[in-house]
Amino acid sequence: MLRILTRATGVVAVLLALATAFPAHVTEAAVSVCRAFRATSEVAWYSSDEEPNVDFYPSGVAGIQPYFEYSCAPRNTTIVTIFTLDGEEVFADEETLQPSSSSDIYTYPLTAKSGVMPDGEWGVTFLVNDVPVVSGQITVGGEATDTVADVVEVTGTVTDKRTRKPIRGALFVVLYPGVTIEQFADEDFNEELIYTSAVTDARGRFALEEPLERNVEYSVLVAAKGYKPVAQDGFVITDEDEDPVVLNVTMVK
Amino acid sequence: MTAHVPKAAQQRNSVWRSELIAVVGLLVFVAAVVAIDAGLRPSLDAGALQLVGLLLALVPAAIWLFVFYQQDRLEPEPVGNVARMFVIGLALMGAIGIPLTDQVLRVQEWLYASAAATALGSVAVIGAVQAFVVYAAVRYFIFDSPEFDERTDGVVYGTAAALGAATALNIQFILASGGAALGPGEVFVAEVALAQAAFGGLLGYFLGRAKLDREPVWWLPAGFLLTALLGGAFVLLRGQVDAGAVDVGAAGGLPAFGGLLLAGALAVAVTGVVFALVRRDIARTLQGKGAAAADAAVGDRSANAIVVALFAALLLAGGLMWSSTANATTAFSREGFAGAYPAAFSDATREGEALRAVDTLGTEASFVVRALPVADAKAVSTQLAGERARQFLGYKVTQTDEASVAGRPARAQHFVYVEEGGLLGGAPRVVQGVDYLIADGGRTVVVTLTSPADRMGDAEPLFDRFLASLTF
Questions:
Q1: Do the beta carbons of residue A221 and residue A173 sit within 8 Å?
Q2: Given a cut of 70, is residue A7 above it in pLDDT?
Q3: Are the C-beta atoms of residues A207 and A172 closer than 8 Å to each other?
Q4: Of the candidates A4, A188, A230, which has its C-beta nearest B244's C-beta?
């Protein structure tokens, strides 16, 4: 079975080895194979003792610290971190990442000048080159919080737009947040950039293997033999959409 | 005493009126079909859907012919000639045009491979074939007729031939789809008819002037090229305004009208432009400025030869694009192996492999090259069987042959297994493959093709070319 999500490529391994041995100029060459930022986890939160994955912060905590994992940071990757408190934007900052082809964690500690973070529902959104890639929420002063991302199952049908007949064997691809269709094409449709995908059955139906997160922008691509591919950046499932989400995909020849 | 007006200089406003009425009439008819489809949601079985679809495919031409003969009563064009053009256009498109684009040049398989392929395929193949069908119908079957004696005749005959071609395209659309939903199906049928009629009228104008005005040798080729370009541009534009989409929510609703509105606007605009040009030409003739010669000898053989050569050149360009798209490769050289895999494949090499090329968006086939530090082919066979038995269901070697890879003897092991869900989710599916085992000193080189069983026919020729390119 092909396991696109978990495997490491020999090319990357070789380049990483080269980058370690020749850190200065070879690193630039190494990251050239890694052209799209890829978040590989949802947002989680460190405790004040830097314990990962806390469910909530107690009242009186001095700071909060969200983090997420990523596997690739090409050159000129800029991350904007936006914090909200009870839905209102309260803080934002921008940072340019060092180029890297290796997996790493991005974290942004936020501390209160007063020494005490206000109680309430805190949210964070990370934008990479102006595209939201991951977001999360946590409660300060609460007993329990919803740190698990709000995800939905996705099913749907792919049909011919002009005949409304189902299209068998159509491939529905969802890329990792932050990866655009253009980047996917630039990397020769590298399957490592695919977050999840599905193929339609004889009745044009499909069900994605992985759930999608609400309010996160994905790029989706649908391809079927003899049809014009459908490519869409900025595909979002909103809070109003039901779970499971049913998609209606139409294609033309 | 009345002034004598040569036939070539006669205004026939009824022709233009009928063109516009036909456009409006067709749009009204489409709106009615869409309303019936959306309101009543008729439930038709496959046979009935096909039958209704075929009848609806004839409607645009029927409306045009009906309106034309209602309006053109003063000096009607012989019904036989117009009908003949329609039938010839239909026959040429059905017998030559469609097979040329679909079976010979297989344009649908490579049209969306790249922006260049889309542009070239739209203009040099689709646009050119459609233009040439109209050209051939008028130029070879009515051009020399004494009935072709007015400037508007070219427009009338060109439109009739184009509507015949459109009807052939629409019949093929219905038959190939096994029927179509009434609303969106009729919208598409009308789109094709309106666009074809517009292009046919335009090319007819060029043909009319070529016959009556002794135009220079570039005139007809220019008309043909312009029509092909417009036809291709329409395909491109329609792809923009009437593209596929990913929507949240169940299927249904009204069909998209973007393409139909584009075609309608195009038909009205082209009709208007041709109308203005013909009026200008007539005015020039009446002022004695033109070179009107209704009885001029026809037979600008040079112009005709250039049109045919131009058509052949466009098809050749399309064929070259097809060839370069289908045969484009990416070279690789690593770990002592070198070769070229199809450019549409992506490099997904894993640790321990020299190459893994995957056709992610196409056949889903994989080409894998690796070297195992085992010299004995049987031991390698056992190792592969063990790997696949752990990963898949029902792995079985179905056939073993002797073969040759990179000039060396090889053992070809054909196998099959069931992938449980697999990379792309969904139901379990049957995967076919073949391992080529080549002894190479103290190791065995394994070159593997795997593909979903139903795509093996598409993947095998690509793999054969890859295998032929492989050296180590």
A1: yes
A2: no
A3: no
A4: A230
Chain A residues in contact with B38 (beta carbon < 8 A)? none
Distance between CA atoms of residues A190 and B347, nearest Å: 7
Q: Are B178 and A165 an interchain contact pair (Cβ–Cβ within 8 Å)?
A: yes
CB contact under 8 A, A165 and B109: no
Cβ-contact B239, B195 below 8 angstroms: no
Q: How far is A216 from chain B (nearest CA, A)?
A: 15
Q: Which residues lie across from A131 on neighbouring strands? A: A128
- Interface residue of B248, B330, B355, B431 to substitute, partner A, most A CBs within 10 Å: B248
- Helix or strand run (H / E) with residue B201: helix B182-212
Give the predicted TM-score (pTM) of the model: 0.68
Residue A41 Cα, gap to closest chain B Cα (Å):
20
Element (H, E) at B383: helix B377-391
Query: In sequence order, what are the residues at sequence separation of 6 or more whose Cβ sits closer than 8 angstroms to the Cβ of residue B213?
Result: B281, B290, B291, B292, B293
Nearest-by-CA chain B residue for A154 = B248
Q: Where do the DSSP E strands lie in B15-153?
A: none
Quickly count helices (H) and strands (E) in chain B: 14, 10
Task: Give me the residue label for tokens 């097809």.
Answer: B322
Tally Cβ neighbours within 10 Å of residue B181.
25
Q: Which residue has the higher pLDDT, B70 or A40?
A: A40
Strands B429-440 and B408-419, how do they pair? antiparallel
Give kind and range of the element (H or E) at residue A105. Answer: strand A104-107
Could you say which of A207, A222, A223 has the minimum Cβ distance to residue B246? A222
Give the containing element (helix H, strand E) for A26. helix A25-31
The residues of chain B scoring below 50 in pLDDT are 1-5, 292-298, 422-425
Evaluate whether ipTM surpasses 0.95: no
Q: What residues of chain A lie within 8 A of the CB of B255, using their CB? A: 161-162
SS3 B98: helix
Strand order in the sheet with B245-248: A205-207, A154-160, A245-251, B245-248
Whether A249 sits inside 8 A of B185 (CB atoms) is no
Do the chains contact at A165 and B177, CB–CB below 8 Å? yes
Which distant-in-sequence residues (6+ apart) come within 8 Å of A69 by Cβ? Answer: A39, A40, A41, A103, A104, A105, A106
A247: closest chain B residue by CA: B248
Tokens of A51: 């314990």
Amino acid B121: pLDDT: 93
Position B2 scores a pLDDT of 41
A and B: number of Cβ contacts within 8 A: 166
pLDDT attached to residue A146: 47
